[in-house]
Write a structure and sequence with these properties.
3-stranded antiparallel sheet
């Protein structure tokens, strides 16, 4: 397996203050990093497991070592062991809001990153059903945590394109259209973003619209989708859940549930005035 594809997620960064401390767990962690970079994955795993054995589960190095072990297994194609360890992360006491690796990644996001790498691992082995299982977890149960609007939107686009790729590999074009159109509408209509310290006016969603245009390339396909969209909007319902409002409707058997503060009438009007609707 091409190990460089996992380097995005492995924890290589660390603070100078912690290095100066020269504690046993920091030395073991660094030895594991050196072994991993030398492609001695078994030795890297041994070092990181030794960090876990110290049981200082509140330390910087404990969380990073836990994160790195399954990535090392994935790097040497030990898919079964990698999945076991990724699932250990999901069910661990690790705090996803631990310090991240740099200013652009302020939080550790252990579970989200584990789901992302697990998805990539199964996609590389062409098990797209499993890849979809984990990318959906990364998008829902273990959503990316950040204070940056830019980082959040870029991650949303990446996740959506991964889903579209996997569904396309399975020849499920209806689901490709669903994930692309859902995310574009979710962004253009409701601007549903988590509370953040920064927000960007830049539009990162053009690749999703371009992919939709590529798939719905004929006038007949476009008219068919638009007709189904109009039918779904006409029968849509405004619901309240846990103090939040959603518009719910279906297109060709796929349910769209988009958060909004608008009335049903204003929501439909906004969709019909959007760049997304103009595609068709």
């Amino acid at each position: 397996m091409n190990t460089s594809k996992f380097l995005l997620f492995i924890t290589l960064s660390f603070s100078s203050e912690l290095i100066i401390a020269q504690k046993e767990d920091s030395l073991l962690f660094m030895a594991g990093i050196e072994s991993y970079q030398a492609k001695n994955y078994h030795q890297a795993i041994e070092k990181w497991k030794a960090v876990l054995d110290i049981k200082n589960d509140s330390s910087f190095y404990f969380g990073r070592s836990f994160n790195n072990i399954p990535i090392a297994y994935a790097s040497m194609d030990s898919i079964v062991q990698a999945e076991i360890w990724f699932n250990k992360i999901f069910h661990s006491n690790l705090n996803d809001l631990d310090e991240g690796t740099n200013i652009m990644e302020p939080y550790a996001n252990y579970r989200h990153n584990a789901a992302m790498v697990c998805s990539k691992m199964f996609a590389q082995s062409r098990n797209y059903q499993k890849a979809l299982q984990y990318i959906w977890l990364a998008d829902t149960l273990y959503q990316y945590r950040t204070i940056s609007g830019t980082s959040f939107e870029k991650r949303c686009v990446s996740i959506t394109l991964w889903k579209a790729d996997f569904y396309q590999e399975l020849n499920n074009l209806d689901s490709v259209i669903f994930v692309l159109s859902y995310k574009v509408m979710d962004r253009e209509i409701s601007h549903r973003l988590p509370s953040m310290a920064s927000f960007t006016p830049l539009d990162f969603y053009e690749p999703l619209r371009e992919r939709l245009e590529e798939i719905l390339s004929s006038e007949t396909q476009q008219q068919d989708f638009k007709k189904s969209l109009d039918k779904g909007l006409k029968s849509s319902k405004l619901i309240n859940q846990t103090g939040k409002k959603f518009i719910v409707f279906s297109i060709k058997g796929n349910q769209y549930k988009i958060r909004t503060n608008l009335s049903k009438r204003k929501f439909i009007k906004k969709i019909r005035a959007s760049e997304f609707y103009k595609l068709f």
